[in-house]
Automatic annotation (TrEMBL):
InterPro entries: DUF4192. Residues 192-211 are annotated as: Disordered. It comes from Streptomonospora alba. This is DUF4192 domain-containing protein. Pfam families: DUF4192 (PF13830).
Length: 352
């Protein structure tokens, strides 16, 4: 994987001194403004630092959902990441949030994980599940405005962004439809036939079922597409897009594209692989989706990276590159590959 140390993001460190800071930080940690979502932050170390982030959409209060089982899995994941402290925030109505937060707190207690804060946020107010003092946590909730927080200002000043919500991310990656989809379907069939002929033009070597000519053609096509994207030129011909997708089916060709991604050129890669992902037929989405995730990760846009990985998971839950990137994102690895975070949240040793 290409690395550019000079342009790699420098972790931003903030101290979460209370509920308002947590609520201001969460959108920049997860990359979007949560809605109807449970967010759990796992911290570890003597001075607890953010290490793992877990998000899941809330199930309706009347849904047949086993909150206890889900909470046990979450606690096990926190233990796997050696997190000894957790912060939980549920965004949504009390009927949906409370039962899930209660389950998380109970599972964490059984696992020996300290839940230092557990909040519900809705309509510009928050309520704490760990504080029952009417002086600081009145029954009507506490007003908060994350947009005026120093935490949010620090995040924005350091280039972090938060998408409006998860739906905006899904819309950003929605597959093309209509006539364009029909053209891509026909172009993909032709590209598959072309690929079969190219694979059959020379004997494969070892476990490489594609053969050297396929790899050479794939590497050339990838480099040409990346160079064009750097000139703000994206492939519009369905045949070119479909051929690129078929070539990326070869792991060595895909990895050729991967090695070209670095933070400086990541915006061009992000535009290119989003374009290919939206046009590709389902069987050919895992490679461009994973490449999009890597390029978004290099730009510290973890929410877009996760959304791209969701597209991959829809068609191939076992795609290995996507699994590797997902693991890195969940544990907060920065682009340079060491355990860090784009936003290093530190919880005080003493309660404020």
């Amino acid at each position: 994987m290409a690395q550019n140390k000079e342009s790699s993001p420098v972790p931003v460190q903030i101290t979460l001194s209370g509920p308002s800071d947590i609520l201001a930080a969460v959108p920049y940690i997860v990359g979007y403004h949560p809605r109807d979502t449970l967010v759990v932050l796992g911290l570890r170390g003597d001075t607890p630092r953010l290490h793992a982030t877990f998000c899941r959409e809330l199930a309706p209060a009347d849904a047949d959902t086993d909150c206890d089982a889900a909470a046990d899995r979450l606690a096990a994941a926190l233990l796997d990441e050696e997190c000894s402290v957790a912060l939980a925030v549920g965004y949504g109505p009390a009927a949906e949030v409370t039962r899930q937060v209660d389950a998380v707190r109970s599972a964490a207690e059984r696992a020996g994980i300290a839940v230092r804060e557990a909040l519900r946020a809705a309509d510009g107010r928050y309520w704490s599940y760990v504080c029952d003092s009417p002086g600081c946590c009145p029954p009507e909730g506490v007003p908060y405005d994350p947009s005026v927080s120093a935490v949010a200002a620090t995040a924005v000043a350091n280039g972090l962004r938060a998408w409006p919500n998860r739906d905006s991310l899904r819309d950003h990656l929605a597959p093309v439809g209509g006539t364009r989809r029909a053209l891509m379907r026909a172009a993909t069939r032709a590209a598959e036939e072309r690929g079969a002929r190219l694979r059959g033009s020379g004997p494969p070597r070892g476990r490489d079922a594609y053969g050297p000519r396929f790899r050479v053609e794939g590497a050339r096509a990838v480099r040409d597409a990346v160079a064009a994207a750097e000139r703000d030129e994206l492939p519009e011909d369905p045949g070119r897009i479909a051929w690129l997708g078929v070539l990326l089916g070869c792991i060595r060709v895909r990895d050729e594209a991967w090695t070209l991604i670095d933070p400086e050129r990541a915006p061009s890669h992000q535009r290119l692989w989003r374009h290919v992902l939206r046009h590709a037929e389902p069987a050919y989405r895992p490679a461009p989706g994973s490449l999009l995730a890597v390029s978004a990760w290099a730009r510290q846009d973890t929410a877009l990276a996760e959304a791209a990985l969701e597209r991959v998971h829809e068609v191939d839950p076992d795609y290995s590159m996507a699994a590797l990137v997902h693991r890195a994102l969940r544990t907060g690895l920065a682009w340079r590959g060491y355990p860090s975070e784009s936003l290093q949240a530190v919880w005080p040793l003493e309660d404020p």
